[in-house]
Amino acid sequence: MSETCRYEELAHTADVGMRVYGATPEALFACAALSLFALMGGVPGEPTGWRRLELVADDTESLLVAWLNELLYLSETSGQVLADVRVVAWTPSSIVADIMCAPPRTPPQTMIKAVTYHRLRLVEQPTGWLADYYVDV
Known about the structure:
It is a single chain. By secondary structure, the chain is α+β, with helices and mostly antiparallel strands. 26% of the residues lie in helices and 47% in strands. The strands form three sheets. Strands 1-2-9-8 form a four-stranded antiparallel sheet, with helices on one face. Strands 4-6-5 form a three-stranded antiparallel sheet, with helices on one face. Strand 1 (6-10) and strand 2 form a beta hairpin. The protein is globular and about 40 Å long. The mean pLDDT is 93.
């Protein structure tokens, strides 16, 4: 993952949120995926291989929510956590990415039910891209 990936937890009285930065939209979506699993707290063990995901949505914000929720779904149904991600192609309404998952070496600490539209923000700035998202725990 590129050193342009930065994220931080957002303080809020009732919700848990993340602010994610990326130099490009592709980097932002990859970084958002990594930030989601950092928020969960599980440490990946030995990776099991790459898997391709392709998603389409109505707009960029919906795409981010769908992307993160799809990763949550895959984690919950497989029992694995995200080890690495490569965004292969991105448009404002679609993403193609390769993800590498692994059984957790240490189990996730936080159970995330879903990524929500609450206070969702995704903007292009002069220095790159920024997204805020909140999760239902």
